[in-house]
Design goal:
The protein is mostly helical. Helix content is 75%, strand content 0%.
Length: 185
C-alpha cells in the first residue's frame, strides 16, 4: 500500500539542501569580523540578518553560537544586542527542538553516537529532563545537538525552552558584553 506523502516535509528537504550548499562552502569564512563587515548599518536590515543567522544555525551545527553573540554586541547598541540575541536564541532553540522531534529518537541517537562524550552525558541524565535542559547549555558542546536530542525524547517544549534559555544566559550575557566592549574600542 502507498503511504500518504507528507508534502511539508518533502518541501523542507530541498530548502535545507539549498541552504547547506550555499553556506557550507563559505563556512570557513564565518567569523566575527566577516559577520560585522557584512551587516548593514540600517538597523532593521541588520536585525533581520542576525535573525537569519540564528535561524540557519541549527541546520549548520558547526556554526559557533558565540560568534553570533559577540557579533551582535559589536553591531547593535547594548539593549538591542541583548534583545536580538535572545530572540535569535529562541529561534535557534525552537528550530533545533523541532528538527529533533521531526527526525525522531532513532535518527538523533545515531547522530549522538558520533559524539561519545555527549552520548554518555545524555544517557546518565536521561530521566531528569530538567537537569538535561539546563546543564547541557552550560557545558561547551554544540547547542543544536542537545536541542535535537531533547526534541526527539519529547521533553515538553515550554519547559525545554525556559530551562535552555536560563542555561544559556550566563554565556550569552558574557559574550554579548564582550562584543559591546570590543565595539567601543
Amino acid at each position: 500500500m502507498l503511504r500518504r506523502i507528507d508534502w511539508k516535509k518533502l518541501l523542507v528537504i530541498p530548502i535545507i539542501i539549498g541552504l547547506a550548499l550555499l553556506i557550507l562552502p563559505n563556512l570557513r569564512l564565518v567569523s566575527v569580523e566577516n559577520i560585522v563587515a557584512s551587516t548593514s548599518t540600517y538597523l532593521p536590515v541588520a536585525m533581520l540578518s542576525f535573525l537569519f543567522f540564528f535561524s540557519v544555525k541549527p541546520i549548520i551545527i558547526f556554526l559557533p553560537i558565540t560568534v553570533l553573540y559577540i557579533s551582535a554586541g559589536i553591531v547593535f547598541p547594548p539593549v538591542w544586542a541583548y534583545v536580538i540575541t535572545y530572540i535569535g536564541v529562541v529561534l535557534t532553540l525552537s528550530i533545533g527542538y523541532y528538527n529533533g522531534k521531526g527526525l525522531g529518537e532513532d535518527k538523533v541517537e545515531s547522530l549522538t553516537r558520533k559524539y561519545p562524550k555527549i552520548e554518555r552525558f545524555i544517557e546518565k541524565r536521561r530521566e531528569n529532563s530538567n537537569y538535561l535542559c539546563f546543564f547541557s547549555r552550560l557545558i561547551p558542546f554544540p547547542v543544536d545537538i542537545f536541542s535535537m536530542v531533547l526534541g526527539a525524547i519529547k521533553v515538553p517544549f515550554i519547559k525545554y525552552l525556559i530551562l535552555s534559555i536560563l542555561g544559556l544566559t550566563p554565556k550569552l550575557i558574557l559574550f554579548v558584553l564582550s562584543g559591546i566592549t570590543i565595539g567601543r574600542i
